[in-house]
Amino acid sequence: MVLKTRQPKRRKFQSTIRQTARRKREYFYSSITVLLVKIILLVFLIILLKTTIGVFIYRFSDSPAALRYSLPGLIVIMIAVLIYYIIKNINNLKEEYKNLH
Q1: Is the pTM of this model over 0.85?
Q2: For the chain, how far is it from start to end, CA to CA, in angstroms?
Q3: 75 and 51 Cβ atoms separated by less than 8 Å
C-alpha cells in the first residue's frame, strides 16, 4: 500500500524558535537513545562471541578449522563494524551538542 504524501501548507506551517530548539533537543535525545541501544547490542555480541568460542572451538575440535572459526570470525567482524558506528555516533553527538547551545 502506497500513500501519497501531501505538501504541507506553508502558511500554517510556521515554525517558531522554541519549536526549532525543541526539535533539535528531541533529535539529540533520540541520538543518545540510539547510542545506548548500540552499546547494549555490543555487550550482547561480546557475550555471544564468548559463547560461540567456547562451543565451536573446544567442543567441535574434530571439525574442520574453517567451520570452527567461521562463526566466531563473523561475530568479530560484526563487533568491529558496530564499534566503528558507535565511534561515529559519538562524534556526531559531540557536534550536535555544540550546535544545541
Answers
A1: no
A2: 42
A3: no
* Residues 11-32: tens digit of each pLDDT: 555 567 777 778 888 888 899 9
pLDDT value at position 17? Answer: 74
Summarize the confidence of residues 21-49 as an average pLDDT.
92
- pLDDT grade, residue 2 (50/70/90)? low
- Count of CB atoms within 10 A of residue 69's CB? 16
DSSP per-residue letters across the chain: --PPPPPPPTTT----HHHHHHHHHHHHHHHHHHHHHHHHHHHHHHHHHHHHIIIIIIITTTS-HHHHHHHHHHHHHHHHHHHHHHHHHHHHHHHHHHHH-
Could you tell me if 85 and 9 are in contact, meaning their C-beta atoms sit under 8 angstroms apart? no
